[in-house]
Automatic annotation (TrEMBL):
Chain segments annotated as transmembrane: none
Protein name, UniProt field: Phosphoglycerate kinase
Source organism: Oryza meyeriana var. granulata
Any one Pfam family match given in the protein's UniProt record, by short name: PGK
Protein family: Belongs to the phosphoglycerate kinase family.
Its EC number(s): 2.7.2.3
């Protein structure tokens, strides 16, 4: 959790224990470390149905370096490995990828499986017609996703967030003009209906009743009454749908940001590959 530089108290997992105990209905035991003699003793002393939470693995630099020895130590206290953290499936770290080489069986959890079923299904065998909405402030990081989607969708809607961005930094600036033109030509060649913003409005305020939830409401309606499959991904999009009170009306709310994007781009997620090979 977080990006600690060594042992950093504010990134400790200890504050999670009360809530985790409440959710699981058992008294969760937390170790002061993630490897070592204390962890081994606590693991050995666990009663059937007991839960042991290891301390933040990112306190060790070996975690993000996917150090084999660190992964081996993590694996040494368990008999089975279940990865249910789809949000980190694109990161080959010791606790997510390396540990599968030393601990078998290694399997995907229910959430991981659900994410893969929806997202892989959307890429490999999408229901038709297939529409995608791509937006956010980091449009440049989604070019690969856009190009991949052009080969699969019937409709592609592109948005973006120009806030705090000088006009010369927008997608259509001269240095990106060639790329933008190429994407438009690819869409035409593939018969994809490409919908782009055509204008902007500069104002110091918005009307309180502005219909900013119209698209979310329409998606919810299509999901609940027409059997349409709706997948929401990305932190801002998920937060917007939840704020609108419509999350439970969508088919799937993805927990992955970067992992979702890489999967939609057609990339292989290292954690998923490791589980397949375990």
């Amino acid at each position: 959790m977080g990006r600690p530089k060594g042992v950093t108290p504010k990134y400790s997992l200890k504050p999670l224990v009360p809530r985790l105990s409440e959710l699981l209905g058992v008294d969760v035991v937390i170790a002061n470390d993630s490897i070592g003699e204390e962890v081994e003793k606590l693991a050995a002393a666990l009663q059937e149905g007991g839960v042991l939470l290891l301390e933040n693995v990112r306190f060790y630099k070996e975690e993000e370096k996917n150090d084999p020895e660190f992964a081996k130590k993590l694996a040494s206290v368990a008999d089975l490995y279940v990865n249910d953290a789809f949000g980190t499936a694109h990161r080959a770290h010791a606790s997510t990828e390396g540990v599968t080489k030393f601990l078998k069986p290694a399997v995907a959890g229910f959430l991981m499986q659900k994410e893969l079923d929806y997202l892989v299904g959307a890429v490999a065998n999408p229901k038709k017609p297939f529409a995608a909405i791509v937006g956010g402030s980091k449009v440049s990081t989604k070019i690969g996703v856009i190009e991949s989607l052009l080969a699969k969708v019937d409709v592609l809607i592109l948005g973006g967030e120009p806030r705090d961005m000088p006009l010369e930094n927008l997608l259509w600036r001269k240095t990106r003009l060639e790329l933008a033109t190429s994407l438009i030509e690819k869409a035409k060649a593939k018969g994809v209906s490409l919908l782009l913003p055509t204008d902007v409005v500069v104002a110091d305020k918005f009307a309180a009743d502005a219909e900013t939830k119209a698209i979310a409401k329409k998606l919810a309606e299509l999901t609940t009454t027409k059997g349409v499959t709706t997948i929401i991904g990305g932190g801002d999009s998920v937060a917007a749908v939840e704020k609108a009170g419509l999350a439970d009306k969508m088919s799937h709310i993805s927990t992955g940001g970067g992992a979702s994007l890489e999967l939609l781009e057609g990339k292989t997620l290292p954690v998923v590959l490791a589980l397949d090979e375990a």
